[in-house]
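Hi Y.,

Following your request, here is the sequence exactly as I used it, all 221 residues.
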Amino acid sequence: MVRFETTGAGRLIGVGNGDPNSHEASKAPERSLFNGLAQAILQTDRDGQGPLRLRATADGLAAAELVLDVRPARVPSAPAAEAISRVGGWRISPPQATRPDPNQVLAENDMNSWGWGEPPIRQVAEAAPWRAYRASLRLRADRNDGQGQLLFQEIAGQAEVWVDGVKIGEKTSPAPGPLRLPLAQGPGWRTMTVLVRAQPGQPSGLIGRVSLERGAAKATP
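Below is the corresponding structure, written out as tokens. Let me know if you'd prefer a different format.
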């Protein structure tokens, strides 16, 4: 039988020996050996610091002592939620000679007529000036309180932005530039369509990232 005693920055909370047939109490200061072994389970004090000593004694054997250096745990802080989340999973229409319908319905099994892409998406100069870009948005609560912002880092060409069939803004300049628009409070899932019109002989597209932001920054014209 081995007897355990602790002093310092902790305490003995359990004992064992690995014997599946043992009925000895696991919450006790002593334990018999099984195959020459016994186990002591220690717990440090809350905010404990300094030495924790475990002393083991048994009849006919020299006492043994183990000293552990207890230090306060450093609990990492959780990182703050990112203020920006990117919009991905874009569908891209083929080039069109006339302005596309922003409410055009795509068949669920249509995987070919519209392509896929992730910004930056830069289209080379084409004979047909129009393209439509579409993505589904899932707005978290902190971006769906009427204060969220939709930010296009850079769009090349003139652009119209539609969300759930409603036009929420446009970019009138054909030169590459940013566009920031407010997002009204509404359903968590939204469908966004961006119509982009290229200038003759000029590239076009969503050439910068598209993101959702918290905050109440003013929309750019």
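Residues 84-213 form a domain with the Jelly Rolls fold (CATH 2.60.120.260).

Thanks again,
Q.
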